Amino acid sequence: MGTKKGSKAASSDDFLQTLEDFTSKENWDKFFTLRGNDDSFEWYAEWPQLRDSLLPLLQDSSSSSSGSLQILVPGCGNSRLSEHLYDAGFRDITNVDFSKVVISDMLRRNIRTRPELRWRVMDITKMQLADESFDTVLDKGALDALMEPEVGTKLGSQYLSEAKRVLKPGGKFICLTLAESHVLALLFSKLRFGWKMTVHSISQKRSNLKTFMVVAEKENSVLLHDITSSFDLLSIGRNDNQGSGMREALESENQRRRDWNNGSDLLYSHEDLKLGIKGNLAEFTGGRRIKFTLGGQGSNFSYRAVLLDAQKQTEPFVYHCGVFLVPKTRAHEWLFCSEEGQWQVVESSQAARLIMVFLDSSHSGATMEDVQTDLSPMVTQLAPRKDDEEARIPYMMASDGIKKCDTVHEVTSSLTGKVVVEDVVYESTPSNPEGVSPSSDLAFRRLVFKRTEGLIQSEALLVEDGEILEQPQNEKTKTVSQSKRKGNKKRNQESSGPLMKVSHDYLASSYHTGIISGFTLVSSYLKNAESCGKMVKTVIIGLGAGLLPMFLHGCLPFSDIEAVELDPVMLSVGNDYFGFTQTDRLKVHISDGIKFIRDITNSKTPSEETANAVPKPQTTSSNGESATYNVKGGTCPDILIIDVDSADSSGGLTCPASEFIEETFLLSVKRALPQHGLFVVNLVSRSQSVKDMVVSRMKKVFDHLFGLQLEEEDDVNVVLFGLCSETVISESDIPESAVILEGLLKCQRLETKQSIIDATKKLKCWK
C-alpha cells in the first residue's frame, strides 16, 4: 500500500506520478498495471531493515498461539513482505487489497512457489472476515494511505475498527508508519483502552524518512496503559521534524492517559463506553455524567455528546431515555455548556437518562430527520435496560436561539452558491454595547452561505443611523428606492422610525477579536511604524462582508489594507448590505488568494528589501535590552490573514480551504513576509487529527507558532499565528505587549478594545 503525498518527493520512481489519490481504487489499479507483476515496490523499510525487529514479535506470538499463527496483511499491494514471512516459516498468511490487478498479479507470482499464501480482493474498511480470526494484523503503510488530509479520518477510523474486530484477544496489531501527527492522533485514540502499545524505530539506510513500528496488543481488560518506546525519547527528534513529531505525540498521549487514570473529566469515545470503562451502561446510575463522542463507522456524522443519569427522582420519569439536540448557535450558552446547566435540562426533560447531543457546522446540510436517523441505532445502544424493549426514545431540541429573523437579500453566485443576508434578533444577547438603547432588542446582520449554513460567515451589529424619515406618501415605492440606494440600511419598524446601519466599530464575531488580539505579537513593530509615520501593510485573503478590513481601517489608522476575494459577488454584497467602502488605504483585489501571494513571492528581490528600508528606530524590549525594528512598505505585507471557508468540509476542515494549509503555500507565505511579519490563520475543524496536521505543518514552516483557542466554540475554532523571526516575545511578555497594542487601537467603543485585550490572555506559545 502507498504512503502519503507529502512523501512522494522522497522517491524518484516515476510511477508515483500516477497516484493522485491514495484512497482511489482506480488509481491503484493503474499504478500496478504500469508496474507489472514482477516489479515489487517497497514503500517503507525493506526486509533487511524489518527482519530483526519483526520476526521476534511474530515468533513470540506464535509460541503463545494454540495453532499456526494466523496473519492478516491489509493493503498488501505488491510488496514482498508476505513472501519473506512465508519463507521464514509463517505459512498462514491472508493478503487483502482492493485492487483486483495487484491481487491477480501476486497470485500468479506465488501460486507455485508459495501455494499456501491466500490472496483476496477486499476493501480493508469493510472486510468480509470473521470476528477474532487473526493473531496478527500486519499493516505496512495501509493506515497512512487512508489518511489523506483531503479525506479526513473517516476511512482510517473505519479500517482500524475492522482491524480491532478481526483480531483475537492477545493478538497484535503491528503498524509500520511514517508517524505523521494526524495518523498518530487517530491510532493512539482508537487503540486506547484495553491495548498495550509499544513504539519502535526502524533504521533506514537509503532514505531521509524514518519508519516507526507501532505494536498494540489486544487485552481482555479495559486498562489504560502508558505507551512505551524501545528508543530514547530524549534523543529522538533533536535534529528532524519527523522524530520531534513522534516524541511530542507520545508525550501528549501519555499525559492524556495519565489524566484519565487520575479521574479527569475528559472526552471518551462511544467505542470506549461499549468496552465498559465507565461501568455498565445498561444499568441506571443516578448522578452519572460522561462526556463522549458519537459516530464514526457506519454513521454519516460525528457528534459531541454528554450522557446524564438523573441525580434525583422527585416524581416518576416520563421517559427511560431521551435525546436532547443542541444547535451550534446555542452550544456556548451556560444552560448547555456548564455541568450545572445540563442537570437543569435533565430535570426539565423528565427523562431518567438524557443524552445531550451538540450539533456543529458539519451537520449544517442535514435535516433533523437525517440526524435522528443517523443517531437512532447508537442511542439505542446507550439507553438503560428496560423491560419494555419497544419503549420510545423521544428527541427534543433547543430552539436556535433566534427570536426574529428577516431575510434581507438572497443571491446565487457561480463560485459560492446561494448567499443569504439576514437580520436577526437573538433570544438572549450580551449586555448592550455603548450607544445602544438598553430598552431595544439588539439586531445583527449576518452573512450565510447555504453550502455551510451552520457557519456564520460575517456578523455585524445594527445601530441607529440617526436619520429619522417621515412616513412617505407612497411607502412601497419609496422603500424600494431607498433599498436600492442604501442597501446597508434598514428601518427598525415596518412603517416608520430611524434607519439602522451596520456598526464598523463593534466586533460581533469572537474570532475577529481573536485575530486582532494576535497583533500583540508584533505590537512593538506596529508602535515603531506609527512613530515613523509609516504604513503597516495588511493583506486579508477572504473578504466576506468586509467587516474585518473595515474595523482595522477604523481602529488602526496607520494600516494599509488590501483584501483579496475570489468571488466578485462578495464585494457587491459587502458594498450594498454591510456598508463596505474602499478608500486610498483599503483596496479590494478580485483575484485568487494563492496566486496573489505567490506573485508577491516571485516579485520579491534583494533590491526591493533595500529600497523599502527606512531608518531603524530604537526601542527597549521587555528585558531592558535595546531592540531594532526595520519598518518597510512595498509589495510585501507585514501582516497576512487567511479568513476563507472551505467549499467542501467533508474532510473535516471547515476553514480555511485545504489549499491554504498545504506546505507549499505556507512556504510561499514565509518567503512573502519580512522578518517581522505575522501570518494569521482562522482554523475551524471538529477533527482533532486535522487540527494536529495543520499545527504540525505550521510548526515545520514558521520559526514560532502561537495559538488562541476560542472557548465559546468549544475547541472547534482556533486562531493560529506564525512568526518568521528567530527572536520573538515569550508568553510572559504578552501582558506588556498587550499594553502597547491597547495604546495603538483607536476604538470608539471601549468594550470592544477591552475584549481584544482580554483575548490576549489566551495566547499560548506552541513552538
Automatic annotation (TrEMBL):
Keyword GTP-binding assigned? no
Q: Which residues form the Methyltransferase type domain?
A: 74-175
Region (Disordered) residue ranges read 473-497, 606-629
Instruction: Quote the InterPro entries the UniProt record gives.
Output: Lys/N-term_MeTrsfase_sf (IPR051419), Methyltransf_11 (IPR013216), SAM-dependent_MTases_sf (IPR029063)
UniProt keyword list: Methyltransferase, Multifunctional enzyme, Transferase
Q: Which residues form a coiled coil?
A: none
Q: Where is the composition biased (Polar residues)?
A: 617-629
Superkingdom, natural source: Eukaryota
Of which family is this protein a member? Belongs to the methyltransferase superfamily.
What protein is this chain from?
Answer: Methyltransferase-like protein 13 isoform X2
Q: Which organism is it from?
A: Camelina sativa
Gene, per the UniProt record: LOC104786443
